[in-house]
Amino acid sequence: MKDLFLVLVVMGVLGLVFGIVIGFANKRFTVEMNPLIHLVEDILPKGQCGACGFAGCQAYAEAVVLNKDIAPNLCIPGKKPVADKVAELTGKKAEEIEPRVAYVKCANPISTASKKYQYTGVNDCVAASMLHSGPKECAFGCIGLGSCAKACPFNAIEINDQGLPVIDKTKCTGCGKCESICPSKVIQLVPLDAHVEVKCNSLDKGAIKRKYCSIACIGCGICAKQCPYGAIKIENNLAVVDPSVCKEKCSEKVCLAKCPTKAIQEFVV
Questions:
Q1: What does the alpha-carbon distance between residue 47 and residue 56 come to, in Å, rounded to a whole number?
Q2: DSSP assignment string, 237-248
């Protein structure tokens, strides 16, 4: 009993000593945070999306306040209003950034698409892609298990009954989380005021595409030939639209009518 009491006394004394030492060290070595960091962080959208290139909103707030070389317009979700406020607080100039939204480059439903096998594994696109690039015959198509929707910090993506992501453009901030997580690279950020986009992601040759997808871009080049402004080119068997040329010069959108598979579609906000 005496030994137990002695042990308790010793532990109590040690606890008291360590507490005093830690308290002193905490007070002695505390680094005062610049109050401007809190002001900047308060106006950020708190999506913690990482689109700014930093690990969350607080990390960006610290960087933009303390480092003169960090631009005030890196918060993509906040767009111009947030950039202007950050610039005002930090005394920097906010350059204009073109607003972008996510676009799904696939229209082939997972429910009816030709498949290599029946997938019954983890309900995740990244996991499914590890097995022969996913269950679809098209290795470039949307796998449809919703990894993009789970990753979106702004709830801007839903998976429809066909197993395809649907982007709510009123909620999408263009942060790029969905684009970075998609293993098939089906999701791409495009200008908010784009005129047309190609609803296909496959780099296979046209004849192969037609075997597993009737609405794929077959790389025939009709759209490129018909565009009077050279806004469309065929690269790796796929039509690629230059949105800057398209929106600046084109108003007829002749490519929509000429595309034999309707892979080129009007971009509607």
A1: 8
A2: TEEEE-HHHHHH
34 in the Ramachandran plot: left (φ > 0), alpha (ψ -120 to 50) or beta?
Answer: beta
Residues 68 and 108 in one domain: no
| CA of residue 122 relative to chain centroid, distance | 22
Number of domains comprising the chain? 2
Please provide the DSSP assignment of the chain as one string.
-HHHHHHHHHHHHHHHHHHHHHHHHHHHHPPPPPHHHHHHHHHS------TTSSSSHHHHHHHHHH-TTS-TT--TTTHHHHHHHHHHHHT--------EEEEE-----TTTS-BSS---S-S-HHHHHTTTTSSBS-TTS---S-HHHHH-TT--EEE-TTS-EEE-TTT-----HHHHH-TT--EEEEETT--EEE-----S-HHHHHHH-TTS-----HHHHH-TT--EEEETTEEEE-HHHHHHH-SS-HHHHH-TT--EEE---
Among 132, 139, 141, 135, smallest CA distance to 108 is for 141
User: What was the pLDDT predicted at 47?
Assistant: 86
Task: Confirm whether 144 is domain-assigned.
Answer: yes
List, for residues 195-241, the tens digit of each pLDDT value: 999 999 999 999 999 999 999 999 999 999 999 999 999 999 999 99
In a domain, 262, yes or no: no
Query: Which residue is associated with the tokens 């007829």?
Result: 252
